[in-house]
Design a protein that fits this description.
Layout: H1 9-14, H2 19-26, H3 32-45, E1 56-62, E2 65-70, H4 75-79, H5 84-93, E3 96-101, H6 106-114, E4 121-127, E5 130-137, H7 149-160, E6 164-168
Parallel strand pairs: 2-3, 5-6
Antiparallel strand pairs: 1-2, 4-5
Helix pairs in contact: 3-5
This protein binds zinc ion.
């Protein structure tokens, strides 16, 4: 099994899009960012081991940060030995990269994205019939966040379909 991405193997190798993948793009099932990341992963996979084991699902981004979703248990392959794969990705894309796993709970998702800032916990509050999920981070870790708070909140909200705020304490 080789690297799996939102575009097919033919498109990964050819550098152009087949009709099937073109349709996926037009219908919004995949994004230009997904395609760009797929091609970059494919390129890196030619020289580094580990990526042939991953199933890259999709990517979302905010200013200065791209989050890649991979299959369950696959983060370590995408990070690579000593972080080499993810560092190469960051160099090529000129942005910070964080990896998350499909199906992860909110707390793990938040921790994987906010790293190296620490997530103390996620509290659920109810007000006026609405749920608010508060990701709690120690105040001194504010400067360790990989992107601005607003951007991170937007990413987490999109990924979980929950109303998420990051709070510092
Ligand atoms: Zn294709």
């Amino acid at each position: 099994m080789g690297l799996r991405t939102p575009i097919c193997n033919v498109c990964l190798r050819s550098g152009i899009l087949c009709q099937g993948c073109e349709n996926k793009l037009k219908e919004g099932r995949i994004s230009e960012l997904d395609i760009k990341i797929s091609r970059t992963l494919f390129e890196i996979a030619q020289k580094r081991r580990g990526l042939e084991k991953i199933n890259f699902k999709h990517a979302i981004s905010t200013s200065g940060l791209i989050v890649l979703m991979v299959g369950k248990g696959e983060i370590r392959f995408a990070v690579g030995v000593g972080g080499k794969v993810v560092r190469e990705l960051e160099n090529q894309l000129q942005t910070k990269i964080r990896l998350i796993e499909e199906g992860a709970q909110t707390r793990k998702l938040a921790q994987d994205i906010l790293t190296p800032a620490k997530v103390l916990g996620v509290n659920v509050l109810y007000s006026e019939g609405k749920e608010e999920h508060r990701v709690r981070v120690p105040r001194p870790h504010l400067k360790r966040l990989p992107a601005n708070v607003k951007g991170i909140q937007a990413l987490l909200t999109k990924l979980t379909n929950k109303n998420i705020t990051v709070v510092f304490e």
